[in-house]
Amino acid sequence: MQDDALALFARAGIVVEESELNSRKLIIHSADEKYAFILVKPGDVPTYVEYGVADVGICGRDVLLESEADVHEPLDLKFGHCRIAVAGKREVIGQDYNLLATVRVATKYTRIASTYFQEKGVPIEVIPLTGSVELAPLIGLSDRIVDLVETGRTLKENGLDVIEVITESTARLVVNRASFHLKRVEVGELIAKLTEALQ
């Protein structure tokens, strides 16, 4: 997502020099020194923006849904397209849930999974994992998984398939609520540049 984001900023006239990108700095600047970029994990972006140490940020909609961060989300940046989906072994595809039995669901999206199955009235036990979620149903840790699916190749290569798509996800520009008002001109200018670059 970082490469797509930097390419979008470049199209918007906000360029970061290669020397900055090739450094190990976690805070880098645009060539004109007008913008500073804080490089953090996608899952941490809403926190940095919500708490105002960054005025704006870019992260996936999946991250926003899971964090429930209190931020503005003014732009869909149209890259990083993925699906948040329920997946499982091929033999469970097409089987209805037994509403009297608890389904074990492995995921790093514990909030999204809990909300989704609660709305369906399906009792689940969430098994939180941080990686290699596809492994869980293969070794009997879970009945299903909820994970981010881009092409589905990893699922297929592990004998799994998408059962249900919960929602779609793309990269989003998020803005701190206070910055949105207190730095209206600067934030508005950035949103306008990115909007034009998306055309």
Would you give an account of this structure?
With 199 residues, this protein is an alpha+beta fold. 34% of the residues lie in helices and 28% in strands. The protein contains 9 helices and 10 strands. The chain has helices at 2-11, 18-21, 45-50, 61-67, 110-120, 135-138, 153-157, 177-182, 184-198; strands at residues 27-29, 36-38, 56-60, 72-76, 82-89, 103-107, 124-128, 144-149, 160-169, 171-175. Strands 7-6-8-5-9 form a 5-stranded mixed β-sheet. A 3-stranded antiparallel β-sheet has the order 3-10-4. The longest helix has 15 residues, at 184-198. The protein starts with a helix and ends with a helix. The model has no long low-confidence stretch (mean pLDDT 94).
Anisotropy-based shape? elongated
Distance between the termini: 19 Å
Share of helix among residues? 25-40%
Separate helix tally: 9
The structural class is alpha+beta
Short description:
By secondary structure, this protein is α+β, with helices and mostly antiparallel strands. 34% of the residues lie in helices and 28% in strands.
